[in-house]
């Protein structure tokens, strides 16, 4: 049985398979790909694009989705093996995952990082518990370590605009925020861009390094695909010659930076990392702008970037639909 | 592309179109009017009738609905142009509206008035932001200024019972409540009743005047349709000869009445405006009772009115289904 | 019009009808049993299995469900006749039930016991108010007194494993918990097991007696079916020779035990009632373990019981689907 919770489930070859199918089906009349099929969607965290796009994929393919919100409409769920369950989590994933598997054909789970502990994000406890206990294919709708659907949608957007991603110079640039965000999206951009053969530049202030295991995994993909990855604290250096700029905020690298002292002040001290038209002027003349959304306007990215014709944020969001249709079809294939 | 966020989108002629189609289809076997179509429903506020009736319209027409709750299941949304988004609203409607438009065929939005500021209600900032940024037809499921589906359902109820609404004497009477409510429903009753040619009487205590712009718009409709509108502080005077009584609570006219002093005390001081059988005895002998629901029994309206054979509150709620089927079909027509 | 809110709506004969149809359809390709039909689902309380299983039943039968959460997405509802509605409940079931009935073909309601008042649970005020005011068939998704779908699913699980439930020795054993739980599930197990002809043994600590009216009703069913019921405070005595062990926690029998003193301490004082492999060793050699879920692992039941091959908790949860398909089909039959 197939699952897609991390890019390593696909590797560079699988990334090509998903993207090729997504591109082939885009714009064509939707076929009843999911006739009689149900996707169960379990949300531990809020969602707009993910909820609407996955549900739309199922409905437009003549299938259906069942949406469950953990902690409001649904019991809080325990993931720790052997737990003595005498606190607020009323049900264990050991039961929830196999039980839901009896009622649906595929399961999607969204579960954000608890924040501030990259080692725990590597373990990815909630999605991993689901993976151990489901009996139907599982797809990540973003977990602590990765948001693979987002990374794949970003690659589709790049390919549509540039034809190929082979050795395409792209910058992932850190953005300011009012609070420390999870690293699932930057991790996924890095991993999928490397798997798609991009020349990836990652720019961030000191102290915001991505996790060594994620970086090593991306490095291996780049080596396999002829891509490359460089890291810098100098935004302008990264941008030089970049054909695409991907802005995203994420929290500090070390746990101590979250707990000791004022994270807000740390984030605010890098307010000049906000992407503006001036920032973009340092990239290639035809550079496009991408962001995963939601975006805090005039904090992460200036209005004039988002409202400029070179922005692909709305097209990029639409591509969530197209890659997810491809993913769900792949999950159901033998 | 068509939208229906305010009665001015229809005018008296459009009101006739919607009502005629709703009446023609009522009671007939539902056709696959919405085959393969998805209505996205965005709720900033709770709903029972609206959620169930819109979803039922889509399902009975072989379509589907995707339901999103802002602030619980979905990110809080920003509507202000140029906002520096460093507070709790994580996403701008400038992104949310066009992104959702890529996943659905129509969008519905419910967004109550923030309360106490009629000028802001005239601006109707949230639904207006959606209207600017959607790329599919938009329908209001109640916004700050109006609740057009409710007003149209009320007119259908009147026509079913009285054959015609031309010069039909109807009273909109203010009702007591435990808190100041938005004016979307009374505004919509006034506007649609005027557009349908009714002889409208509006009765309320001093200080609860409806907004001058709404009144002027209704006046223009009445002039065009041969209807009329009168305002009084004397409930009995309004009721004399009325064939239908529509009770509804709303808040004070001026912002100062909300902020300065005790609104609850103000509302309580008019407790005798509650509709009882005795109130209704002042109307025509065959007068019917309507209310948009939800209704606070024995605060706004007495049990004996709601449980009396002359009440049309349940039939009126059912008519939400019928006018909404007509509206959504009209929105999708070229 | 048929309703299923309590086992008395079926009696022993109806229980047989539901179980026979559920068994006959299990494993067969789903037919379009619910083509064009909508089940409205109103949740006053959280749910995982119930929500997913009912929605799946409708979707797999070519129908649909509309899900509403009272108090978050939907107004809080009043059930008391004659109430002066000046508190937080904005809508009366007298309106909500008939209005929803206009938009759907069947209604399901989940409404837990307020807790600690068995007399009120007997009255079962919320589901009873819905029953009085709906105009379409109503099914309980658990109310204060009973959870009939759960009881029926448990009987299906027993029959699948043992062929027949006639004089089958089964133990319902009380389990420890961190808080006092409603009695709907133990009540329903008792009632359905008696109606299915089991030899039922109920074991619990002193002070946790089930309500006399429930016990009397179960006794009548047992008399009619050749079953039997015994009560004991001695878990080992009950288990001797039992072919199935059903563990479930519930609160004290008397209201005073809830209000006076520390319920948590009372519950904790019976921590040794947790079901372990050692507990099960006192039952028959081939004894199976059942639980309605959610289960607090290592509080109510030890890991080694739930993870043992003799556990039927996941299969039992799947049977919710099968009995509910049978129930909804029965509700719609003339």
UniProtKB/TrEMBL annotation, chains A, B, C:
<keyword id="KW-0028">Amino-acid biosynthesis</keyword>
<protein>
    <recommendedName>
        <fullName>N-succinylornithine carbamoyltransferase</fullName>
        <ecNumber>2.1.3.11</ecNumber>
    </recommendedName>
</protein>
<dbReference type="InterPro" id="IPR043696">
    <property type="entry name" value="ArgF'-like"/>
</dbReference>
<comment type="subunit">
    <text>Homotrimer.</text>
</comment>
<feature type="binding site" description="in other chain">
    <location>
        <position position="110"/>
    </location>
    <ligand>
        <name>carbamoyl phosphate</name>
    </ligand>
</feature>
<feature type="binding site">
    <location>
        <position position="75"/>
    </location>
    <ligand>
        <name>carbamoyl phosphate</name>
    </ligand>
</feature>
<dbReference type="InterPro" id="IPR006132">
    <property type="entry name" value="Asp/Orn_carbamoyltranf_P-bd"/>
</dbReference>
<comment type="pathway">
    <text>Amino-acid biosynthesis; L-arginine biosynthesis.</text>
</comment>
<keyword id="KW-0808">Transferase</keyword>
<dbReference type="Pfam" id="PF00185">
    <property type="entry name" value="OTCace"/>
</dbReference>
<dbReference type="InterPro" id="IPR036901">
    <property type="entry name" value="Asp/Orn_carbamoylTrfase_sf"/>
</dbReference>
<keyword id="KW-0055">Arginine biosynthesis</keyword>
<dbReference type="GO" id="GO:0043857">
    <property type="term" value="F:N-acetylornithine carbamoyltransferase activity"/>
</dbReference>
<dbReference type="Pfam" id="PF02729">
    <property type="entry name" value="OTCace_N"/>
</dbReference>
<feature type="binding site">
    <location>
        <position position="177"/>
    </location>
    <ligand>
        <name>N(2)-succinyl-L-ornithine</name>
    </ligand>
</feature>
<feature type="binding site" description="in other chain">
    <location>
        <begin position="47"/>
        <end position="50"/>
    </location>
    <ligand>
        <name>carbamoyl phosphate</name>
    </ligand>
</feature>
<comment type="similarity">
    <text>Belongs to the aspartate/ornithine carbamoyltransferase superfamily. SOTCase family.</text>
</comment>
<dbReference type="InterPro" id="IPR006131">
    <property type="entry name" value="Asp_carbamoyltransf_Asp/Orn-bd"/>
</dbReference>
<feature type="domain" description="Aspartate/ornithine carbamoyltransferase carbamoyl-P binding">
    <location>
        <begin position="2"/>
        <end position="160"/>
    </location>
</feature>
<feature type="domain" description="Aspartate/ornithine carbamoyltransferase Asp/Orn-binding">
    <location>
        <begin position="185"/>
        <end position="331"/>
    </location>
</feature>
<feature type="binding site" description="in other chain">
    <location>
        <begin position="147"/>
        <end position="150"/>
    </location>
    <ligand>
        <name>carbamoyl phosphate</name>
    </ligand>
</feature>
<feature type="binding site">
    <location>
        <position position="296"/>
    </location>
    <ligand>
        <name>N(2)-succinyl-L-ornithine</name>
    </ligand>
</feature>
<feature type="binding site" description="in other chain">
    <location>
        <begin position="292"/>
        <end position="293"/>
    </location>
    <ligand>
        <name>carbamoyl phosphate</name>
    </ligand>
</feature>
<dbReference type="InterPro" id="IPR006130">
    <property type="entry name" value="Asp/Orn_carbamoylTrfase"/>
</dbReference>
<feature type="binding site">
    <location>
        <position position="248"/>
    </location>
    <ligand>
        <name>N(2)-succinyl-L-ornithine</name>
    </ligand>
</feature>
<feature type="binding site" description="in other chain">
    <location>
        <position position="320"/>
    </location>
    <ligand>
        <name>carbamoyl phosphate</name>
    </ligand>
</feature>
<comment type="function">
    <text>Catalyzes the transfer of the carbamoyl group from carbamoyl phosphate to the delta-amino group of N(2)-succinyl-L-ornithine to produce N(2)-succinyl-L-citrulline. Is essential for arginine biosynthesis.</text>
</comment>
<feature type="binding site">
    <location>
        <position position="142"/>
    </location>
    <ligand>
        <name>N(2)-succinyl-L-ornithine</name>
    </ligand>
</feature>
């Amino acid at each position: 049985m197939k699952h897609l919770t991390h890019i390593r489930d696909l590797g560079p070859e699988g990334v090509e398979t998903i993207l090729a199918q997504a591109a082939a089906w885009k714009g064509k009349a939707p076929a009843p790909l999911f006739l009689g099929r149900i996707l169960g969607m379990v949300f531990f965290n809020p969602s707009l694009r993910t909820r609407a796009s996955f549900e739309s994929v199922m409905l437009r393919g003549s299938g259906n989705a069942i949406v469950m919100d953990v902690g409001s409409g649904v019991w809080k769920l325990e993931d720790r093996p052997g737990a003595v369950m005498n606190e607020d989590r009323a049900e264990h994933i050991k039961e929830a995952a196999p039980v839901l598997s009896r009622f649906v054909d595929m399961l999607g789970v969204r579960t954000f990082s608890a924040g501030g502990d990259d080692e725990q994000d590597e373990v990815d406890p909630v999605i991993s518990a689901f993976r151990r206990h489901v009996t139907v294919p599982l797809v990540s709708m973003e977990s602590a370590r990765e948001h693979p659907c987002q990374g794949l949608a970003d690659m589709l957007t790049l390919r549509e605009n540039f034809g190929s991603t082979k050795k395409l110079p792209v910058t992932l640039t850190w953005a300011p925020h009012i609070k420390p965000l999870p690293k699932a999206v930057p991790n996924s951009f890095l991993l999928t861009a490397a798997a798609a053969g991009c020349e990836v530049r990652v720019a961030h202030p000191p102290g915001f390094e991505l996790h060594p295991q994620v970086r090593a995994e991306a490095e291996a993909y780049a080596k396999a695909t002829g891509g490359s990855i460089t890291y810098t604290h100098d935004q302008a250096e990264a941008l030089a010659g970049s054909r695409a700029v991907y802005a995203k905020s994420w929290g500090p690298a070390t746990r101590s930076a979250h707990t000791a002292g004022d994270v807000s002040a740390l984030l605010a001290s890098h307010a000049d990392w906000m992407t503006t038209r001036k920032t973009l002027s340092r990239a290639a003349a035809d550079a496009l702008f991408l962001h995963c959304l939601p975006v805090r306007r005039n904090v992460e990215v200036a209005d004039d970037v988002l409202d400029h014709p070179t922005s692909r944020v709305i097209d990029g969001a639409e591509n969530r639909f197209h890659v997810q249709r491809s993913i769900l079809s792949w999950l159901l294939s033998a």
